[in-house]
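Render this sequence as a predicted structure.
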Amino acid sequence: MLETGTVAPEFTLPDQNGELHSLADYKGKKVILYFYPKDNTPGCTKQACGFAERYPQITEKGAVVLGVSKDSVASHKKFEEKYGLPFTLLSDTELEVIKAYDVWQEKKNYGKVSMGVVRTTYLIDEEGIIVKAFGKVKAAENAEQMLGELE
């Protein structure tokens, strides 16, 4: 996980509509950048729906939500439509951003070790500095936690 106080790595990735987004596009706004393992899985759905529910309050506080996983643009589109997600989902099929933010790590599941995305959320300030970093995030509580961080 990246340290707080460091400059957030710049990136450009396609969203669920195939449009490119760069971190620089959001200068002047707070960015909740969350990395999650996979679209349409129980934990990731809870996390995304939590952000969707609180999205009006988040935007009122001058922040945007960007979700990142290694799923395809098409997978993100289905996920967005199925749950009516009002925020941007970014597709990082090449793992470039996932690795730059140090969230591609060894995971243990039922004794099996594999590489995967560790659920992590960063709060990036208006200048592009990481001000909060949360690893091993609890999916169902993440949106409420981040809303509290914007106070």
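Summary. The CA atoms of residues 65 and 87 lie 6 Å apart. The chain has a mean pLDDT of 96.
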